[in-house]
Amino acid sequence: MTSSILFTNTQLIDGSIVDVATDHGTIAWIGPTGSSPVESNQKVNLNGYVLSSSFVEPHAHLDKAFLADRISNPAGDLMGAIRGLEQVRGTITHEDLVERATRAVHLMSRNGVTSIRTHADTTISGGLSSIHALLEVKKNCAHFMDIQVAMLLEWPVTGIEGKERQALARDAISVGVDVIGGCPHLDPDPRNAVEYLLSLAIDAQLPLDLHADENMRSDSSDLEHLADVVIRDGVSHQMNASHCVSLSTRSENDIDRIAAKVATAGITVTALPQTNLFLQERGVSTNPARAITPIHRLQQAGVVVAAGADNLQDPFNLVGRGDPLEIASLLMISAHSTANQAIQMVSSNAHRAVHGVASSLAVGEPADFTAIPATNLRESIAMGPPDRIVVYGGVVIDNQIRNRK
Questions:
Q1: Could you tell me the pTM of the whole model?
Q2: What is the pLDDT of residue 382?
């Protein structure tokens, strides 16, 4: 593989035209066209392309991808999707799961994603089947995609019933999950569920990523309670809370108060507009809420807000193209984000949510970026054009590389 490449005549998201030189997987130089001091043995002309730091999918469910036509969800809501999945779980084989998840990874890669955090159902009925399959996909795709597998622990995790699931969690940790996760808002005791999952993550020395407040109840308080515990106990840990849509039902004073706590606690928040808009507020005809966490109020408080696609053509979300630009477009329409804010949420901020540090196009940073054929950033989001040039670790990723075993 080429160790050094000069990418010429590319437009950055601020509109400036530059050359970018990479060397051994790192960005070695960025500057005016035709003036690179770096010796490069390959040149790639990016005239007519907009260059962004690579996209990160901070919240996927690869084990469910492409199940939309195999699972019925007549109610169209969250619990309907969960019940529909449970009805067919026994028919999903290891080979089927690996094939669908791999197909989704390839799709996301072609769209410019170089890193994915995927949740894996960890249930009594399914055991560790999703985890084993997704760890296999992670290994098979490691040469072109950085994948984290997050344990999505079934509820309840509290009380007598929770003991069996706590044992299952220990088994998941022992086989090598990368992240601890669960759904406190579905537990009979959400507050204790939050505390259990946080302590599990700390003990295992693994990041925490909760499905938090995935409902439109104003009394749902997973996010606030997590922040309270972290501040109270002086916890320093990598933590993300996904969904957080119930926060949008609170008063502005409440939102600002909670957002300040979340910022102090250092918790990143991942907005998932596509799936939340699909599942929430079903049957509400008068003044339906947008079912998106209050992105701008969180950002104003200093919270790092990422954005992802969540489900991909399954009963939780019947559509989706595995494309962060689709999510960026939706953020601009439904959450009134600017083009710059939207692209940051699916790239740099998403990288922060998954890896604990933000990414950027800067000298010394990993050479992970995506070139999109467009005249400017707004057009790239609006059109979502194909034929993107994806660079991961300084290597231009094509289908030949993706299909390599």
A1: 0.97
A2: 98
